[in-house]
Amino acid sequence: MLTFALSKGRLAEKIFKFLKDLNICDISIKDSDRRLIVESEDGRFRFLLAKPSDVPTFVEHGICDLGVVGKDTILEENRDITEVLDLGFGKCRMCVCAPQDNLDGYKAKSIVKVATKYPSIAKRYFESIHQDSIVTKLNGSVELGPITGLSDVIVDIVESGRTLKENGLEVAATIHELSARLVANNASIKTKYDEINDIIKGFKSLL
Question: What is the reported pTM?
Fold first, then answer.
């Protein structure tokens, strides 16, 4: 049996469609469905429906052989797993965003104040450019950081950039290009090589 960790919603729906298109299994989850574990009728596949941030954890600990999760979550959680395929959907960017009227102002600060939902990514980025930072985690609208004076900049996911613009912010630097990724447990890659390789080949054929 191959076990997948998926986040309920668009990512899970996309993977279920892939598996159906490949004639591997046919599973659909309704919005009203509260099951956290779903199995295929033939018993070959099991799916754990978890929060996105928990997907790498289940894969690292061997509870699941494979997982599908955004690159942002992989970078933030920094688990000991193997990224085996860029699925190419859910594309966006992880960016440093600053006030439009002072886009590069943060670069001159001895210590930059950062508001973000991704503290690990933010800390590593500013360390990589040799700038001291104070990182504050926010769980909601991080755009409020610069507006209220809590922070000089934010580190966040950017898709269209509309929300930034409407709140007087703009992309100052791109940290990472993001998309959905297929990840695997390190031991499972060896012990279930053929099964996992078949999934990778199948997904590649659909991309």
Answer: 0.90
